[in-house]
């Protein structure tokens, strides 16, 4: 059982319920405002020769008034008010259930139950959900052979103390380091149909416990380079790596270089 995924689904459910609660409260308020604007009374509907006929009994009156076509708006407003009232009742009922659900322990939290334990009990118990520190350690402890091609291009030293091949890669590495995002440079990845490649960065979203690859395509103005980049992107997709999910693709040409804002947007969206 993937307990982290179980916990994540719980958190997602709570977020969705809170958003549903907010929307229902706003919807209920709007329904109440719409009902205030309508005339009072009840409507009776009959049918004569295939045509609907509407009768109105005003509040406090014992007589039914036939509503001619030019007064049909009265029926429309009262029927709308009845419909809005029915929706309000259902809305309030659902809001009550959501409030009860959110205020009680209706959903098991694996992590919360662990944190309730004393330190002595935690010390002898295997965590079902690894701590962020354990996840980072496991991610970074994986050893791999660095790509040894074009080593002469490794000219840009990062704050992490390693060398990368381009200014754009240096910018990405610096922002990853600045935001505390664990990463590995040119970690090998095997793709069916293409073989072993070396994406620029293998990153870890610690909060989601998710690995994301970052490929920077820095010479898209070159036709041969761009053709190879598209082939690589197709191979990524065929192997289950999709932009915006577990893959980041940034691009640049001589006329349109990579800028820090683009890097920051991807980091905020995918890695924090």
Please explain how this structure is put together.
There is one protein chain. The chain has 2 domains: 104 residues, no CATH class; 134 residues, Trna Endonuclease, Chain: A, domain 1, CATH 3.40.1350. The chain is 46% helix and 17% strand. Strands 6-9-10-11 form a 4-stranded mixed sheet, sandwiched between helices. A hairpin with a 4-residue loop joins β9 and β10. α1 packs antiparallel against α2. It starts with a helix and ends with a helix. The model has no long low-confidence stretch (mean pLDDT 91).
Short description:
The protein has two domains: 3-106, no CATH class; 137-270, 3-Layer(aba) Sandwich (Trna Endonuclease, Chain: A, domain 1), CATH 3.40.1350.
Gyration radius, in Å: 31 Å
On the 0 to 100 scale, the average pLDDT is 91
Q: Note the beta-strand portion.
A: 15-25%
Helix share of residues?
Answer: 40-55%
Features:
46% helix; 2 domains; alpha+beta; 3-stranded antiparallel sheet; 4-stranded mixed sheet; 272 residues; Trna Endonuclease, Chain: A, domain 1
